[in-house]
Amino acid sequence: MLRSLGADDERFKTLHFRPGLNLLIADRTTHSADTDSRNGAGKSSMVELLHYLLGATSQKHSLWTHKALARHRFQLIMDWPGRSDPIKIERRPSSLKVYLQPDVSRSATPDLFGQEFSAEITLKDWQWAIARDLYRIPSPETPVSGRTLLSFAMRRVNSGGFLEPTSTFSGQSPHEAMICLSHLFGLDIGLTTEYRTLSQQDATRKKLVEAAKDPVWGKIVGRSAELRARSAQSNRGSSNFGNRSRPSR
After folding, report:
1. Burial of 175 by CB count in 10 Å (0-12 exposed, 13-18 middle, 19+ buried)?
2. What was the pLDDT predicted at 194?
3. Residue 169 CB coordination number (10 Å)
4. Tens digits of per-residue pLDDT, 84-119?
5. Which end of the chain, N or C, is less packed with Cβ atoms under 10 Å?
6. Cβ neighbours for 215, distance < 8 A, ≥ 6 positions apart
7. How confident is the prediction for the chain on average, in pLDDT?
8. Torsion angle in degrees (nearest 10) through CA of 58, 63, 66, 70
9. In this model, does residue 69 exceed pLDDT 70?
10. Dihedral angle computed from the Cα positions of residues 123, 124, 129 and 135, in that order, rounded to the nearest 10 degrees
11. In sequence order, which ranges of 26-173 are alpha helices (DSSP H)?
12. What is the pLDDT of residues 178-222, one digit of tens each?
């Protein structure tokens, strides 16, 4: 469960989450009309900051790429599996590190005095901790992305995340989405991975068939009859060479 989302920039309001349904809406005053927009409440910014603090890589035109925010720090406090106390996550746009208090990226146990240490870790290590602990992905080599799984829960409007229930952004491969959904529903991702491989092979085959119809391809590679004749000639040459007897001394 999320606890709070904030920043050390006073322009950002700290959001506090409570158990159950939380709604982010614009304030309505006595002077508000029915036609007044509800935009500008910070709904999209909240989702972007959640993605940022939960392992998103920097993208052009993202909220945290603005120069005015480079020196500020964003913070998320949330519950973590297997822990009774929440953890704190912080990121700064000017840094490539993620600050964790305590460091849950490694399966470290408290010391003899019960102290747990904080750490600044790499973004890659943080992404793996999310995949391992939040989604129980067994290995980094597993064809399931923790970041993609998060996108099913935190959808972006600008990426077309609400256009299809089974995809998180426009143009997402249905096979990749199927693998992630299979993991979320506890199904065998091995079958969906094999299906993706077969589909990719079939797509490659169709492209090769279309390419073979191109007259330019025939000029480069040659016609089928010409290739068969060359192959037969090459085989005869190899056979004759192998049948040559050594000269007597």
Report:
1. middle
2. 84
3. 16
4. 999 999 999 888 899 999 999 875 555 555 567 889
5. C
6. none
7. 81
8. -70
9. yes
10. 110
11. 43-53, 123-134, 146-153
12. 888 999 999 888 888 887 788 778 778 887 777 777 776 666 665
**Angstrom distance (rounded) from CA 208 to CA 22:** 52
Which pLDDT does position 101 carry in this prediction? Answer: 93
Q: In angstroms, rounded to a whole number, what is the distance separating the alpha carbons of residues 90 and 75? A: 4
The phi, psi pair for 82, rounded to 5°, reads 80, 5
Distance CA 195, CA 187 (A): 14
∠ CA 213-173-175, rounded to 5°: 95
Q: Is 104 exposed, middle or buried (0-12, 13-18, 19+ CB in 10 A)?
A: buried
Instruction: Identify which of 48, 74, 73 has the alpha carbon closest to the alpha carbon of residue 63.
Output: 48
Q: Cα 31 vs. chain centroid, distance in angstroms?
A: 44
Segment 237-247, tens digit of pLDDT: 665 655 555 55
CB 17 within 8 A of CB 2: yes
Dihedral of the CA atoms 221, 222, 224, 226 (nearest 10)? -130
Q: What share of the chain is helix, strand, coil (3-state, %, to 5)?
A: 40, 10, 50
| Token pair of 177 as six digits | 């989405």
Q: Which of 92, 87, 99 is nearest to 3 (CA)?
A: 87
Residue 176 confidence (pLDDT)? 86
Question: What percentage of the chain has pLDDT greater than the value 90?
Answer: 30
State both tokens at 13: 């309001």
